[in-house]
Amino acid sequence: MSFALGLTGSIGMGKSTTAQMFADEGCALWDADAAVHRLYAKGGSAVEPMRNAFPSAIVKEAVSREALKQIISNDSNALKMIENIVHPLVAEDRTAFRAAASADILVFDIPLLFETGGETAMDAVVCVRVPADEQKRRVMARGTMTEEQFEQIRAKQMSNDEKCARSDFVIETDSLDHARVQVQDVIRQIRARMTDA
C-alpha cells in the first residue's frame, strides 16, 4: 500500500524544486501543472471538449493558454466552464498515475490543494514556505509576470500561513541544502509510520 503525500505552497515558495527533491529520494511524483500541459497538448484529452466550448482556444490542434487567458479576461463565466472541463480530466490523470505507480510514497504536487479540497484524498500534506519578501523576489526574478499579476495570483490563493497551519509537515525552502534535509526527514517519518501501521 503506498502513501499519498500532497505537496502544496503558494507561488514562488519553492514547490517545484522541493517536488524534485522528493523524486530524487525515490518517491513517485505527480505534478498537476504537468498533467494540464499533457491534457492541452496536441492529442490531449482536453482538446476536443475545449474546442466544443471555446473554438478560438485551439491553436495548431492544441489548447492555447494565451488564448484561454484572453477568453477568461473577456468572459467572467469562462473560468468556471474551463475548470468544469479540466478538473475531471486532471482527476482521471491522477487516478491513472496512482494505479500505475510502484513507489512506497507518491507525492502529488498540487498548487491549489486546499482550495480544491484535494487534501481529503491524501494521507498527509506538506507545505513549502519562505518569507513573503523572498517569495516576491523569486517570482519577480523569473521575469514572467508583472508585480500586478503576481499580486492577483497571490490574492486568489489561500494564504500560505493558513496552508502551513493545515499541513502535517512544513518545509522551509530558504536554501537547497536545508530543504533537502527536511525532505529526507519527512520521508523518514512517513516510512517509519508505514512500518508501524
From TrEMBL:
<dbReference type="InterPro" id="IPR027417">
    <property type="entry name" value="P-loop_NTPase"/>
</dbReference>
<dbReference type="GO" id="GO:0015937">
    <property type="term" value="P:coenzyme A biosynthetic process"/>
</dbReference>
<dbReference type="GO" id="GO:0005524">
    <property type="term" value="F:ATP binding"/>
</dbReference>
<dbReference type="GO" id="GO:0005737">
    <property type="term" value="C:cytoplasm"/>
</dbReference>
<comment type="function">
    <text>Catalyzes the phosphorylation of the 3'-hydroxyl group of dephosphocoenzyme A to form coenzyme A.</text>
</comment>
<dbReference type="InterPro" id="IPR001977">
    <property type="entry name" value="Depp_CoAkinase"/>
</dbReference>
<keyword id="KW-0173">Coenzyme A biosynthesis</keyword>
<keyword id="KW-0808">Transferase</keyword>
<comment type="similarity">
    <text>Belongs to the CoaE family.</text>
</comment>
<keyword id="KW-0963">Cytoplasm</keyword>
<keyword id="KW-0547">Nucleotide-binding</keyword>
<comment type="pathway">
    <text>Cofactor biosynthesis; coenzyme A biosynthesis; CoA from (R)-pantothenate: step 5/5.</text>
</comment>
<keyword id="KW-0418">Kinase</keyword>
<dbReference type="Pfam" id="PF01121">
    <property type="entry name" value="CoaE"/>
</dbReference>
<keyword id="KW-0067">ATP-binding</keyword>
<feature type="binding site">
    <location>
        <begin position="12"/>
        <end position="17"/>
    </location>
    <ligand>
        <name>ATP</name>
    </ligand>
</feature>
<dbReference type="GO" id="GO:0004140">
    <property type="term" value="F:dephospho-CoA kinase activity"/>
</dbReference>
<protein>
    <recommendedName>
        <fullName>Dephospho-CoA kinase</fullName>
        <ecNumber>2.7.1.24</ecNumber>
    </recommendedName>
</protein>
